[in-house]
Design goal:
Elements lengths: L1 E7 L3 H12 L2 E7 L11 E4 L2 E4 L10 H10 L4 E5 L2 E5 L2 E5 L3 H8 L1 H16 L8 H9 L1 H7 L1 H8 L8 H7 L5 H9 L18 E5 L3 H14 L3 E4 L2 E8 L4 E7 L5 E6 L1 E4 L3 H6 L1 E2 L4 H8 L3 E12 L8 E4 L8 E4 H4 L9 E10 L10 H15 L7 E14 L5 H15 L3 E3 L2 H4 L5 H17 L22 E5 L3 E5 L13
Parallel strand pairs: 1-2, 1-13, 2-9, 6-16, 10-14, 13-20
Antiparallel strand pairs: 3-4, 5-8, 6-7, 10-11, 11-12, 15-18, 15-19, 16-17, 17-18, 21-22
Length: about 500
Amino acid sequence: MKPKVVIIGAGPAGLTAGYLLSKNDVDVVILEADPVYVGGISRTATYKGFHFDIGGHRFFSKSKPVEDLWTEILPNDMLTRPRSSRIFYGGKFFSYPLKPIEALLKLGVFKSILCVLSWLKARLFPVRNPRNFEEWVSNQFGKRLFNTFFKSYTEKVWGMSCKEISADWAAQRIKGLSLGSAIKNALIPQRYNGDRSKVIKTLINSFRYPRRGPGMMWEACAEKMTALGGKLEMGCRVTRCCYDGLSGQWNVEYKNGDGDLQITEAEHVISSAPMRELVRGLSPAVSERTKRAAESLKYRDFLTVMLILKDRQMFDDNWIYIHDPSVKVGRVQNFRSWSPEMVPEADKVCYGLEYFCFEHDGLWDSGDNDLIELAKLELIQIGLAKEGDFVDGCVVRQKKAYPVYDDDYARHVATIRQELDTRYPNLHLVGRNGMHKYNNQDHAMMTAMLCVENILADAKLYDLWQVNSDGEYHEAGPATVEETNGSALRLVPTRVGTPELAPEA
């Protein structure tokens, strides 16, 4: 067996790394705090036979190796699903991406003209070097459309003013999309012709999806990894990572499901745990400056109220963004529209109402029954249900769902990275919380895939921080893809060293 690797967390990044390392005969142990579910925020929860996501997860990536790995893990259980989503604003539903004629009719001619003039003004006189979310989005869409279709929802998600949110977040989540591209797509819908690099992910009109939710993918990945000899320990919470600089060895301490303290040795540690928690548990301890940086990192939590209702065919979108400030719900998902197999009873529907909050605030600490009643009232207020429709429901809380992109987050992350790279060379950060990057699962997977390449080569072939929000890897020269061991896809660098970040279009 090759060197032992301990992986913290069995989300998309951790399981991708574990599976690929196991395929290469590396001794791997994944430590997962959850006693039941793998997949992290990409898991699929179940309640009385109904399946539901913790957030929605479309399976589409600009990265062919990621797409191929999905196919390899779950070859016979991926559906192709139509993408459909809308915005609820001012008591009306608007298609998203925006359809100009529909928006014109629903906003009214006068408001629409003002929106177009506002957009033209933004194109002629943009804010130079936008620093916050409001400035960035206003540059792309104009101030009036920002106030109409972005402000309320975004402030629900983050619990702060759009002026306090870094422009980095907008650049990652809305990259390539502007009013002009939305109008162009409405008139001439973009078609996927095999070239993922040309696709604006926000505008895709179909995606793949596992028959019983994203958790099906990660459960299959875990099974394949363990069949290859990798180990998965559930209900195990890592408390400390001790590094011996002389030997280069790690002792990873964790508590198992019974609360007993355990220790396992490793040559490499891959962490997808929240960066703040990891830094707290490192030994020898980091500097006071890095401790302060880690403690300054913030996270946004959220909860899902899952409701089972009689099927009145109220809507068939995958989800609806709720931009109306009169209700607390931020987004409503229709799980049958993700996959019919998510809902086992033909005369029922299953909706997920998402509420964004901070751990231990009033919403988070509300009782489940109170949250279910709130969700019922708001669903009726929005117009997506009627009294007498409701059958049952449950609540799932998700801590640290979103790393917060405030004004100072990038400086804090840079401080932490600098010390960790210098003092702990065999510590690898991957995934959303591991790198404090708001990304999708394909991005998280790509960081893990490249991390595996570095470990197998015992060299830093790739800088994981150069993986962008589309799951693509930027480097100075072109990379090729080849097959290894008959099935594992491997990226081959054309040069060794830290790549340059390619400019965005």
